[in-house]
């Protein structure tokens, strides 16, 4: 009897997830409130590119547990766990004109935050305006606010998005965007004052 042929995509996916030394393990979605479910359903999610899906992996960063590392060229964010593990998330990073690198700390966490675009952004794009939290808000479901070493707000955020189709691209004004389900997952894991490294 002939064995059924597996779809090439299935074979390739299995191979990708089982490469020696870089075993990827999908992680379950976080628990969501009724409000999260309702509002997140209003942001259409494209089919996710597996390169930017959420996985638990061997930690490639060498940083201390609890640290967030953003590898801008890879379009990946790593949250370092104990035992040399990390959660890897696909992200949107700053486009060439607005990208940045350096160290920061989280000084505030917010669910469905209001958006107050900085003056320089309004100058570039006069059509943008402050907006209450919600499905149409560019900050999405959660935001992590970043401060520099002196404690000053950098005006950069790690946040959700109302444009999930741009995950994996360099398309933001410097903020790190995540799928809403992923930013909820990170928000639930990360501690106050966590170190953030953007490379």
TrEMBL record:
<comment type="pathway">
    <text>Cell wall biogenesis; peptidoglycan biosynthesis.</text>
</comment>
<dbReference type="InterPro" id="IPR050979">
    <property type="entry name" value="LD-transpeptidase"/>
</dbReference>
<keyword id="KW-0961">Cell wall biogenesis/degradation</keyword>
<dbReference type="GO" id="GO:0016757">
    <property type="term" value="F:glycosyltransferase activity"/>
</dbReference>
<comment type="similarity">
    <text>Belongs to the YkuD family.</text>
</comment>
<keyword id="KW-0573">Peptidoglycan synthesis</keyword>
<keyword id="KW-0328">Glycosyltransferase</keyword>
<keyword id="KW-0133">Cell shape</keyword>
<feature type="domain" description="L,D-TPase catalytic">
    <location>
        <begin position="66"/>
        <end position="199"/>
    </location>
</feature>
<dbReference type="GO" id="GO:0005576">
    <property type="term" value="C:extracellular region"/>
</dbReference>
<feature type="active site" description="Proton donor/acceptor">
    <location>
        <position position="159"/>
    </location>
</feature>
<dbReference type="Pfam" id="PF03734">
    <property type="entry name" value="YkuD"/>
</dbReference>
<keyword id="KW-0378">Hydrolase</keyword>
<protein>
    <recommendedName>
        <fullName>L,D-TPase catalytic domain-containing protein</fullName>
    </recommendedName>
</protein>
<dbReference type="GO" id="GO:0018104">
    <property type="term" value="P:peptidoglycan-protein cross-linking"/>
</dbReference>
<dbReference type="GO" id="GO:0071972">
    <property type="term" value="F:peptidoglycan L,D-transpeptidase activity"/>
</dbReference>
<keyword id="KW-0732">Signal</keyword>
<feature type="active site" description="Nucleophile">
    <location>
        <position position="175"/>
    </location>
</feature>
<dbReference type="InterPro" id="IPR038063">
    <property type="entry name" value="Transpep_catalytic_dom"/>
</dbReference>
<dbReference type="InterPro" id="IPR005490">
    <property type="entry name" value="LD_TPept_cat_dom"/>
</dbReference>
<dbReference type="GO" id="GO:0071555">
    <property type="term" value="P:cell wall organization"/>
</dbReference>
<feature type="signal peptide">
    <location>
        <begin position="1"/>
        <end position="25"/>
    </location>
</feature>
<dbReference type="GO" id="GO:0008360">
    <property type="term" value="P:regulation of cell shape"/>
</dbReference>
<keyword id="KW-0808">Transferase</keyword>
